[in-house]
């Protein structure tokens, strides 16, 4: 007999079906709750509420498991490439060589942006945060491709928008950096792979030959893979909600970029680096800052620790920590911030205060160390998170559209004033 949930309200019993996922997660289906009972549920922050059913990413917060389309993140990080993982997330299967070659070739062909996009850069103040520029320019693609705002896009039209977005975000992200630095913008090169092309557009100058370092390309692939999707996090839920109104893929992703920018979300990687720099500037005494973090009267908080869903450890942090050691070792970089980070981690993993609060390093804690090692400035860290998360946002938006999900429109419990009559301004005190 199918499992169900019994609810007794006002002395009356109601039964609601239980749905079970392929990993045996169970949910009470309350689609008919309000119609049958007049009640709604409320769950601030949606900590106990599923917004959708999805076949893209599975994570187990208790066991520290993360899989993209069933493949463990550890295997993908070690054996795959970012574009192969992007194809996997978006289309659901690992591509054949021919499929991957075509996907990569299509993206390469679309890395150029309309010349009018360059003019938009001129409208921003030179100190504009790169995430403000990125979200604006990604949204502007809707203006260049107005046909993308349609509820009836064919598979081919959706695929074209997917390719355009995957291709152009790397150019726009690199140009955001070069524009902020006052450097000449680099046009993409069709002879380079995705990550090499991004590094070329970020760090080359027309005045000298740019040498691609395969060790940095490998580290960048791994970082982007580790950020590629994470089920219904804040920015992905934003992309799905905006997309459920039939907004274009570009507009939906632009909204996701703004959600990711929040310091409580993707902006945390920039906050971690700034925290490590502040500790270094203060003399590097990590025990002093551990004590500050434990002092409830002290506003200092350890950034990059703890997570909403992981209850023991973030599997991505373990991989990134090793990658940080590998990259800095390979490049011969002795970054004092890495030593500070390692001391903080060791303290947090042994100090009962942090252990009982499940405060352990998350994906943001070490990623900035690697970005810094490969020359990416702190303000660009969250842009890098967006670059990595894009295939996940695309996959989730596409799944929502293919499943013909209704427009997202949560209910509320009203706690405001009861009905009252308008008072003219002369009679107000
Ligand atoms: C993410 O990867 O999006 C972050 O870990 C945040 C989250 O999953 O809630």
Automatic annotation (TrEMBL):
Protein name as it appears in the record: Citrate synthase
Domain of life: Bacteria
GO MF assignments: citrate synthase activity
Catalytic activity: oxaloacetate + acetyl-CoA + H2O = citrate + CoA + H(+)
Keyword Transferase in annotation: yes
InterPro entries referenced in this protein's UniProt entry, alphabetically: Citrate_synth-like_lrg_a-sub, Citrate_synth-like_sm_a-sub, Citrate_synthase, Citrate_synthase_AS, Citrate_synthase_bac-typ, Citrate_synthase_sf, Citrate_synthase_typ-I
PANTHER family tied to this protein: CITRATE SYNTHASE (PTHR42871:SF1)
CDD domains noted in UniProt: EcCS_like
Keywords noted in UniProt: Acyltransferase, Transferase, Tricarboxylic acid cycle
Annotated family: Belongs to the citrate synthase family.
Associated pathway: Carbohydrate metabolism; tricarboxylic acid cycle; isocitrate from oxaloacetate: step 1/2
Species of provenance: Hymenobacter cellulosivorans
PROSITE patterns: CITRATE_SYNTHASE (PS00480)
């Amino acid at each position: 007999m199918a499992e169900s949930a019994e609810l007794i309200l006002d002395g009356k019993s109601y039964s609601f079906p239980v749905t079970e996922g392929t990993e045996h997660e169970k949910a009470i289906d309350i689609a008919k709750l309000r119609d049958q009972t007049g009640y709604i549920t409320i769950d601030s922050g949606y900590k106990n509420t599923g917004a959708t059913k999805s076949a893209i990413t599975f994570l187990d917060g208790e066991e520290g498991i993360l899989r993209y389309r069933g493949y463990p993140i550890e295997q993908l990080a070690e054996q795959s490439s970012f574009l192969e993982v992007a194809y996997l997330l978006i289309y659901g299967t690992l591509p054949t060589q021919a499929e991957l070659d075509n996907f990569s070739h299509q993206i390469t062909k679309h890395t150029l942006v309309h010349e009018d996009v360059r003019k938009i850069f001129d409208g921003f103040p030179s100190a504009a945060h790169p995430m403000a520029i990125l979200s604006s320019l990604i949204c502007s693609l809707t203006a260049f491709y107005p046909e993308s705002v349609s509820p009836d896009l064919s598979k081919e039209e959706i695929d074209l928008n997917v390719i355009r977005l995957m291709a152009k975000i790397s150019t726009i992200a690199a140009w955001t950096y070069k524009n902020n630095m006052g450097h000449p913008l680099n046009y993409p090169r069709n002879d380079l792979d995705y990550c090499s092309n991004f590094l070329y557009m970020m760090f080359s100058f027309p005045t000298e030959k740019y040498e691609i370092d395969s060790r940095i390309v490998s580290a960048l692939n791994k970082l982007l893979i580790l950020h590629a999707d994470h089920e219904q996090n804040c920015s992905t839920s934003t992309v799905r909600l905006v997309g459920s109104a039939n907004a274009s893929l570009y507009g939906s992703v632009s909204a996701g970029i703004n959600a990711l920018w929040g310091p409580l979300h993707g902006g945390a990687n920039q906050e971690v680096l700034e925290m490590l720099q502040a500790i270094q500037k203060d003399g590097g005494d990590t025990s002093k800052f551990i004590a500050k973090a434990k002092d409830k009267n002290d506003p200092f908080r350890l950034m990059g620790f703890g997570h909403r869903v992981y209850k023991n450890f973030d599997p991505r942090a373990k991989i990134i920590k090793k990658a940080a050691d590998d990259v800095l070792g390979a490049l011969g970089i002795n970054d004092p911030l890495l030593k500070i980070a390692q001391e903080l981690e060791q303290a947090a993993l042994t100090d009962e205060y942090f252990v009982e609060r499940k405060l352990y390093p998350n994906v943001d804690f070490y990623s900035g160390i690697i970005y810094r090692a490969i020359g990416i400035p702190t303000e660009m860290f969250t842009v890098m998170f967006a670059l990595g998360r894009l295939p996940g946002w695309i996959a989730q938006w596409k799944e929502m559209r293919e499943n013909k999900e209704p427009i997202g429109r949560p209910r509320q419990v009203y706690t405001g004033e009861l009905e009252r009559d308008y008072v003219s301004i002369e009679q107000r005190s």
